[in-house]
Amino acid sequence: MPELDVDFVRSQFPAFASAALKGQAFFENAGGSYTAKPVIDRLTRFYHDRKVQPYAPYQASQLAGAEMDEARARLAAMMGVARDELSFGPSTSANTFVLANGVRLWLKGKKAAIVVTNQDHEANSGVWRRLADEGIEIREWQIDPETGHLDTEALGLLLADGKVKLVCFPHCSNVVAEVNPVAEICAMAKAAGAYTCVDGVSYAPHGLPDIPALGPDVYLFSAYKTYGPHQGIMVLRRKFGEALPAQGHYFNAETLYKRHTPAGPDHAQVAACAGMADYIDALYAHHHGLSPATPLARNNAVHDLMRDHEVRLLQPLLDYLAARNDLRLIGPRRAEGRAPTVAVALDRVAEPVAAELAQHGIMAGGGDFYAVRPLGALGVDLGRGVLRLSFVHYTTKAEVDALIRGLDQVL
């Protein structure tokens, strides 16, 4: 496998040519990534030339609808699912909220249980927990309080009586960052008669998922964290999507990608999401030439390029942090088993430390990042929060080195 050409990658992001961002290294990518040029170009073109109601019988409208359809079709193909199994919504939190309402109606009056974790971001935890008000049993799959790890043996015990109908868990946590064994968990749930809902928000920026290989019934992530516009993307497999009561307009109930999206889509942003596919294809072509490959194979190849680069940059940072005795490094110490989202608990409030880092040209964040449950379970002082240092494949070794120098100064 070739090494990622970071110079080519950065040439695809206007942010790296911005005078306003010059001399600053971006380490809060878990909160939202820079936007790829093809996305910006498509969004600009839509607002200039296509900003009309789509699917009407005139040219501008037909072109607008075609671009929206292109985004859905290409991203679905890259993840190995049918085009109507991919839905757009205003955010992942909104998509999860709507989905949970469908599950509420589906399980109403049944003796059923849902498994949630305390490793999750609140968006894939709180909405499910509130279903307890409807008489649905909520079972918590708990993390190890020292490491943040989710033990699959513990999940087996929660599934044993056959009452569980849905298992909700993260591909990786936005503070623990350990990459969970999604395929194994989904297989366990399926064998027990349960569907699965995977929060991929913190993983998808490091490579879009191969849905058939992983096996979830729902996979959710955010386009604005994966180099695109501010949209939530939901892969909802047909069997589960059609089993749930429709949440959209009654006349859209027969269309799977409209069935669980009650709000009208943001036409321009949906169309711009095709730029995410443009970017993945550009990376594939640059590194692998024009050799024929399916959209899923191209996506998987780019995923591996991204992850290989990130792992090589991440290990020195983990080693540096693990060697310090004035902080607690959250999550695994080996880069291969985690995403490059690194949270550390300090002996002081984290947010002012992030502000100090900004004086050294390092953009990072401090707080709880809506991960109140996992941080609390890990015994982190929520008043202090954690310092979070997160990067993606466009980050360079020089920037990681600058981060370590900055940490030396402020810690």
Highlighted features:
single chain, 411 residues, alpha/beta, globular, PyrdxlP-dep_Trfase_small, PyrdxlP-dep_Trfase_major
Largest sheet, strands/sense/barrel: 7 strands, mixed
Order of helices and strands: HEHHEHEHEHEHEHEEHHHHHEEHEEHEH
The count of helical stretches stands at: 16
Task: Based on Cα principal axes, name the global outline.
Answer: globular
Oligomer: single chain
Proportion of strand residues: 5-15%
Q: Report the strand count.
A: 13
Q: Which strands sit side by side, in order, in the main sheet?
A: 2-8-7-6-5-3-4
Ranges with pLDDT <50 over ≥5 residues? none
Overall SS class: alpha/beta
The proportion of residues forming helix, as a percent range, comes to 40-55%
Protein name: Aminotransferase class V-fold PLP-dependent enzyme
Pfam families: Aminotran_5 (PF00266)
Keywords: Aminotransferase, Pyridoxal phosphate, Transferase
Organism: Gemmobacter fulvus
